[in-house]
């Protein structure tokens, strides 16, 4: 009897101690004690119209997968956003409170996370990070008139029909088209094999536009292999099919976890085509337990390269490394840019912290098509009224475990 | 005389269940209109209704019929996608949102019942754990099938294609430019109009309760429970085992389909991968923790366990860990001898009163 009581007591103590950890680890209040930004002179980026200036404290909410399969994306985006928030707060002008909520990359949980943030008093949303979740939340922000800027949800369904939902990343069609164009220009005569996940909106969407554009530019596709979430542990069938059909370039519009398996198995069977990924490939180098030598020579289309030599990227990478002990990926840069874009938009619209979410939304939606922002993921980013970003994609190749421009 | 008294007790529990749900609805509605309910809870009301219906209907299969079903989310998926197709394709024909919602729920229930029939006919004739195996497979098969499904709608009607090879896109449906895509294969249904409301969810829960409780207390329900308790004895007194198993299983599938349709029309995007094995297990956890065969237990377990992970958001990364610990503690507490003694002490008093009456 005593024993059982003691057991329950221990369990309770464990819960409480965990709670304490969680409380400290996940705090999103502005950290006023962070060291001031080291590169002060080039922080306020871009040539935003200096018509108005914002004032007061704004509440920014973030939604992304902080746990679960896609946690690398959500954590990176939210960490990047937090760094930007700390930098902006250190500038002294407007102050931003940032709070990130977990959505496990699931639409239902994402709406719940969004509602939790609305209870907290969120004025502008950074997120959701993944596509499916972002589509579900976009309908809610449209009804509630809350301005939302997703760092990395790339489907056109996220923004279509919603005037107050904007993207930092390329849309899926852009990535598919961009990849096909890049391959046909730089590797003419390549025999392309595609391996994609056909139960995933992101993967299927890029594959569809890639194939359509490949038809237009005369790129030869010799094999197509599909897999699903449940079969992403073995790719020998798809790789053998690609090899026997003579593919010398494998296009992988997929996330990095299956890509790691594909690279490993291709090496195991002595098949060495050029692998070409899109932004989902980003993150593979930071994957725990991944042998980075496998990714040698892998190309990917990404808007961000951590070893670009401009000062701003370098300071961001250094800061990220110091705080989180890893090189930031594109999602971290997207999250970082998202906060700066909102900052620029708030400045341009002359918003103040005591405005309601609806008022801020209308004000920002009006100025978004007029502002130009220089970010880590692109110089001179501009937005169409539809919410689509316009910036140049960049192809990088992995050499010695880092991205370099070919 | 004795029988009448026994009936009265179950009837009392049933009426208490109805009253409890109605009271909960009224209180929540009042709180909502008074602005006392935060957004987080308000947003969870419709999914809670869906999961209550799911849990109650699964309880019919697992608790009342005594067969293990591991693919309940598959029926939810069938209901959700057929409901979404019905609601979206009737957008012009039926102007009223609530009418489309009712049609969608009916269509979802009908298709899920059909799926239940197809699964049930071969499997429910067998003895043993075959239903668990087959429903597990069914859930996975439905997921894969919907991943291949392309559906669009224009003024000429519905267009459908099965994308088995993985190379078709929505453009291959041959729709007129005015047409809209409803289900885009792996991307699922996007841009669905949100028709579900808490009121509709409440009505569906009440409907489910009326159907399930009346079924359980009817002649058919007693036959179903007789099969659960002793199949051979039930057969020996002339109960048609397959027929009654089918009645319970198809009812359960149809209700899951109705819940799915309501769920599907509550979110603007819905992918087939949502209704995977984990969702089936989640609902099974609601049923088991609420108590096998206990309808009101399922209702409370579904509501509490749905809110719990959201209420634990302050634990950030550790919230699912805390959730698991809470589940274990609930299990320990309900099996605790002290608590059982305590509950046991309450019981005799009640029977004592009954004797006196």
Protein model, in words:
Mean pLDDT of chain A is 83; it is low at 15-51. In chain A, strand 12 and strand 13 form a beta hairpin. Chain A is built from twelve helices and 15 strands. Chain A is globular. Chain A has helices at residues 2-25, 71-91, 107-120, 131-144, 156-159, 172-186, 201-217, 236-244, 256-268, 311-324, 330-349, 357-367, and strands spanning 57-64, 95-102, 124-126, 147-150, 165-167, 191-197, 220-227, 249-252, 274-277, 299-302, 373-375, 378-383, 389-390, 394-399, 402-404. In chain A, the strands form three sheets. Chain A has a seven-stranded mixed beta sheet with strand order 7-6-8-9-10-14-15, with helices on both faces. A five-stranded parallel beta sheet of chain A has the order 2-1-3-4-5, sandwiched between helices. In chain A, helix 3 (107-120) packs across helix 4 (131-144) and helix 6 crosses helix 7. Chain A has 406 residues and is an alpha/beta fold. Chain A folds into two domains: 41-170 and 311-391, Rossmann fold (3-Layer(aba) Sandwich), CATH 3.40.50; 173-302, Response regulator (Rossmann fold). Chain B is mostly helical and 357 residues long. Chain B has one domain. Chain B contains 13 helices and five strands. Chain B has helices spanning 2-33, 39-64, 72-89, 97-123, 130-147, 198-217, 219-229, 231-236, 241-264, 277-290, 295-311, 319-334, 337-356; strands at 149-154, 157-162, 180-184, 189-190, 269-270. In chain B, the strands form two sheets. Chain B has a three-stranded antiparallel beta sheet with strand order 2-1-3. Classes of the chains: A alpha/beta (406), B mainly alpha (357).
């Amino acid at each position: 009897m005593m024993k059982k009581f003691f057991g329950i007591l221990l369990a309770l103590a464990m819960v409480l101690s965990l709670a304490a950890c969680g409380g400290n680890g996940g705090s999103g209040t502005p950290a006023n004690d962070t060291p001031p930004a080291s590169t002060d002179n080039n922080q306020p980026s871009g040539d935003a119209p200096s018509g108005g200036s914002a004032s007061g404290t704004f509440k920014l909410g973030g939604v992304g997968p902080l746990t679960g399969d896609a946690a690398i994306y959500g954590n990176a985006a939210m960490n990047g956003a937090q760094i930007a928030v700390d930098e902006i707060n250190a500038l002294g002008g407007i102050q931003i409170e940032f709070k990130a909520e977990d959505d496990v990359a699931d639409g239902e949980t994402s709406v719940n996370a969004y509602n939790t943030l609305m209870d907290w008093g969120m004025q502008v949303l950074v997120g959701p990070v993944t596509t499916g979740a972002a589509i579900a939340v976009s309908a809610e922000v449209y009804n509630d008139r809350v301005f939302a800027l997703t760092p990395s949800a790339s489907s056109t369904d996220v923004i279509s029909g919603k005037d107050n939902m904007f993207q930092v990343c390329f849309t899926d069609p852009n990535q598919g088209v961009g990849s096909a164009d890049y391959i046909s220009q730089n590797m003419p005569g390549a025999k392309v094999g595609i391996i994609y996940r056909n139960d995933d909106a992101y993967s299927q969407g890029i594959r569809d536009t890639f194939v359509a554009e490949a038809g237009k530019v005369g790129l030869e596709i010799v094999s197509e292999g599909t897999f699903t979430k449940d079969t992403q542990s073995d790719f020998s069938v798809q790789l053998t099919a690609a090899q026997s059909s003579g593919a010398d370039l494998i296009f992988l519009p997929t996330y990095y976890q299956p890509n790691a398996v594909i690279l490993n198995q291709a090496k195991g069977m002595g098949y060495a085509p050029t692998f070409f990924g899109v932004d989902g490939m980003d993150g593979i180098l930071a994957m725990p337990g991944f042998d980075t030598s496998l990714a040698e020579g892998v190309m990917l289309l990404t808007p961000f390269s951590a070893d670009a030599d401009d000062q701003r990227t370098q300071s961001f990478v250094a800061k990220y490394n110091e705080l989180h002990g890893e090189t930031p990926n594109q999602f971290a840069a997207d999250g970082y840019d998202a906060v700066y874009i909102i900052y620029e938009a708030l400045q341009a619209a002359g918003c103040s912290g005591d405005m309601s979410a609806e008022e801020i939304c209308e004000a920002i939606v009006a100025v978004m098509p007029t502002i130009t922002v220089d970010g880590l993921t692109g110089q001179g980013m501009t937005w169409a009224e539809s919410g689509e970003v316009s910036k140049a994609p960049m192809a990088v190749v992995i050499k010695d475990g880092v991205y370099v421009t070919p | 005389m004795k029988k009448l008294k026994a009936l009265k007790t179950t009837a009392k529990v049933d009426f208490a269940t109805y009253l409890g749900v109605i009271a909960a609805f009224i209180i929540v509605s009042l709180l909502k209109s008074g602005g006392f309910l935060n957004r987080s809870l308000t947003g969870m009301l419709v999914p809670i209704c869906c999961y209550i219906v799911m849990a109650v209907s699964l309880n019919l299969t697992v608790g009342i019929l005594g067969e293990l079903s591991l693919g309940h989310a598959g029926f939810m998926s069938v209901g959700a996608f057929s409901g979404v197709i019905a609601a979206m394709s009737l957008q012009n024909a039926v102007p009223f949102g609530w009418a489309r919602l009712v049609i969608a729920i009916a269509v979802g229930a009908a298709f899920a019942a059909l799926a239940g029939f197809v699964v049930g006919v071969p499997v429910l004739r067998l003895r043993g754990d075959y239903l668990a195996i087959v429903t597990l497979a069914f859930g996975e098969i439905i997921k894969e099938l919907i991943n291949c499904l392309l559906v669009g709608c224009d003024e000429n009607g519905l267009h459908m294609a099965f994308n088995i090879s993985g190379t078709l896109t929505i453009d291959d449906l041959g729709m007129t430019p005015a047409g809209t895509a409803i289900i885009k294969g792996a991307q699922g249904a996007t841009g669905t109009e949100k028709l579900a409301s808490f009121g509709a969810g409440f009505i569906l829960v009440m409907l489910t309760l009326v159907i399930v409780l009346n079924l359980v207390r009817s002649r058919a329900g007693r036959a179903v429970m007789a099969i659960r308790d002793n199949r051979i004895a039930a057969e020996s007194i002339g109960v048609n085992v397959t027929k009654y198993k089918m009645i319970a299983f198809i009812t359960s599938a149809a209700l899951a389909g109705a819940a799915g349709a309501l769920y599907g029309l509550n979110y603007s995007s819905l992918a087939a991968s949502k209704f995977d094995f984990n969702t089936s297990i989640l609902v099974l956890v609601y049923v088991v923790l609420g108590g096998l065969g206990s309808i009101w237990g399922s209702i409370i377990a579904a509501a509490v366990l749905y809110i719990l992970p959201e209420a634990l958001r302050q634990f950030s990364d550790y919230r699912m860990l805390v959730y698991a610990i809470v589940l274990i503690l609930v299990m320990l507490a309900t099996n605790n001898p002290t608590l059982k003694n305590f509950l046991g002490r309450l019981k005799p008093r009640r029977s004592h009163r009954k004797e006196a009456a």
